[in-house]
Design goal:
482 residues, mainly alpha
Length: 482
């Protein structure tokens, strides 16, 4: 029996199930996607109302993150705000049409959408100071990513990360992100002379989020909380206006990589490629913990028998790498990673990747062409609350769910400590090494591993991560080797 007819014959209408959750879990259980084959909506997967939520969250997150990255590059190269707006529009089209729809929806629905590599944003000034070129950086990230995905290194590292390591990583990322977003909202409200707005927005968000958790409708948190945040802020007198008019960005790579147009940098030479190598290695080294966190959300929220719809880490790395190379050559300023603002709400809503990916592509195109939705998504109350309830609170909750006993708590504690000492890449690599060697965590698990899995692979991962951090000056108190 083919997978197409299997899904069509095995699916049942929602009216035949006692609850909506039962219907959604059955949908997950009867789908079985095939790698690199054409999949069609309603033949191989359905599109449900719940798919709108991760699509909306992904679009908001995409506008926010690409704007932050493009603005960071623009400040280093002396580019205007108009450049940022047009490049964000361009990236929305690239991400929406070429990759959300073509790859994640139609060709390989086991691959998460290729989003934005947020942890690399603070490193952009270092990249520029080292003589890096955005196109050279993008190509090298893509090349190293393809090497890791083709060697199956990504899935291997995910497998070797124990539950305590995963839990600690998620708790750290969730807690730090939560505090950071609240702090940024408070700074913004104080900056406009209305410090009370942040309190009103956060208070309303906490109340509605708690209620949604109580009635088990957390998958509605992003649209409802974001809408409420905007309404509350506007009702309290916060100014807001639409400024980005409808239109299309320049579509030619020669415009973006011209000497006097676009990036105003021209095409890169060999020196540019050499300068970005350590940053590209670090970017790809950061992928594994990022991808790990997103797959964990599926495992926690999907039924156990829904194996056919789980995210394939290696294939996702392949798509992110291709997206990085293609997007950079076209002229985009994005650095790719697994799309967290899509995967996390999709997993909570118990939806597979492809249906929401199609809707994400449509929403990204609409936002880029219309312009005005970009203004709304970038408005501080909306974007901060969307990231709070769509990414960081779920990360924190998922991490706490994974710390189930004293052994996993020990590994989680060391992971959080190590992450706080340097950063999440260092914390994940060090704790995975210690956990697999049996120095912390579950010693029985360590004893069941082969020598390569227990020592060799985690040690290589640790050396690569720490070496990359040392090259670019990201180890505390140690100057950059470059």
């Amino acid at each position: 029996m083919s997978t197409q007819s299997s899904y069509q014959q095995r699916r049942k209408p929602a009216s035949e199930f006692e609850s909506r959750d039962s219907y959604l879990e059955n949908e997950l259980s009867i789908m079985n996607f095939r790698r690199w084959r054409l999949h069609l909506p309603f033949r191989d997967f359905g599109i449900e109302l719940e798919d709108l939520v991760p699509a909306l969250a992904a679009t908001i997150g995409k506008v926010v993150m690409v704007t932050a990255m493009a603005a960071a590059f623009a400040s280093q190269f002396g580019l205007s705000a108009e450049f940022v707006a047009e490049n964000v529009r361009y990236e929305l089209l690239i991400a929406g049409v070429l990759f959300a729809v073509v790859f994640s929806a139609l060709l390989n629905p086991n691959t998460n959408l290729a989003g934005t590599h947020g942890p690399m944003i603070p490193l952009i000034p270092l990249i520029a100071a080292a003589g890096g070129h955005p196109l050279a950086l993008g190509i090298m990230v893509g090349v190293f990513g393809l090497l890791l995905s083709f060697s199956k290194g990504g899935s291997k590292l995910v497998t070797l990360s124990g539950e305590g390591v995963r839990g600690g990583l998620l708790i750290y990322l969730g807690a730090v992100g939560l505090i950071g977003q609240i702090g940024k909202l408070e700074l913004w409200s104080e900056g406009i002379g209305m410090g009370f707005v942040s309190f009103g927005v956060i208070f309303a968000t906490v109340v509605i989020y708690a209620y949604l958790a109580r009635v088990q409708k957390r998958w509605l948190a992003i649209p409802l909380c974001s809408l409420l945040a905007g309404v509350v802020a506007y009702a309290m007198g916060t100014p807001f206006e639409f400024v980005t008019e409808p239109g299309l960005p320049p579509m030619s790579p020669t415009f973006w990589w011209g000497e006097t147009t676009g990036w105003q940098l021209g095409w890169p030479d060999l020196n540019h490629f050499i300068a970005v190598i350590p940053f590209a290695i670090l970017a790809v080294a950061m992928w594994s913990p990022d991808f790990l966190g997103h797959r964990v959300f599926q495992e926690l929220n999907y039924p156990k028998k829904a194996k056919g719809v789980l995210m394939n880490v290696d294939d996702t790395m392949t798509v992110c790498s291709i997206r990085q190379i293609v997007g950079s050559i076209l002229g985009g300023g994005n650095l790719a990673s697994s799309w967290g603002t899509y995967m996390i709400p999709a997993a909570i809503a118990k939806r597979p990747i492809p249906g929401g990916a199609l809707l994400t592509g449509v929403m990204c195109v609409l936002a880029a062409v219309l312009g005005y939705p970009m203004d709304l998504a970038m408005w501080e109350p909306v974007l901060r609350v969307a990231l709070l309830v769509g990414v960081f609170l779920p990360l924190l909750e998922a991490g706490m769910q994974m710390v189930r006993d004293n052994q996993s708590a020990q590994s989680a504690g060391v992971c959080i400590f190590s992450c706080a000492f340097v950063n999440p890449v260092f914390g994940w690599a060090l704790t995975m090494l210690l956990d697999n060697m049996g120095l912390i965590g579950d010693k029985k698990r360590s004893a069941s591993l082969s020598f390569a899995d227990r020592v060799v692979i985690p040690l290589i991962a640790f050396i690569v991560c720490v070496g990359s951090l040392a090259l670019v000056g990201q180890l505390p108190g140690i100057p950059a080797i470059l």
